[in-house]
User: What shape does this take?
Amino acid sequence: MKLRIVPIVLTVIVSASVLFGGWYLYQQFALRSPLANVVSEYEGVKSSHIDIKQDTVTLKLELEPETNLRGLVEHINKDGKSVIGKRTLKLEVEDHSSEQLNKWWDAAMLSVAEAMDNKQYTDIQSSLDNLAKGAAELKATAQIDDQNVYVSLSDGKSGKFIILPRQPGKMEVWNHA
Assistant: This one.
């Protein structure tokens, strides 16, 4: 029995093309495209990049300054549930903050961290309100859901979005002590 190399190589190439092409089309049209539509229809989203892995969905977002981040997360979880499924949703918001917003956040960070550590989440909005009293153009909001606290700072032209997990990282014993 003599094997011919050309038909075997062609069969392997065609099979691989169909297999990987089908996988790519499934990823693009059944997963990414519907989720991209859900994200882009929300008011305040300039652009998004979606990365879907087996156990996580990562969204890299570019947002307008006064976008309701908690509302966006709620919208994605509700309308994108068929795509997300049991995967974990991770958000990465591009930082387009100004120097002034960074200074304001630096001033509020200690009181926000203290409120997070003590699980006194209403103190976060209080400290942001105190910060906003000193600057008329600053708009500072804190919103909460069951997983995160969303802090938004805006001066009208630029925005800073901070996502703080409600469950802090746990210290573990390191095996290689």
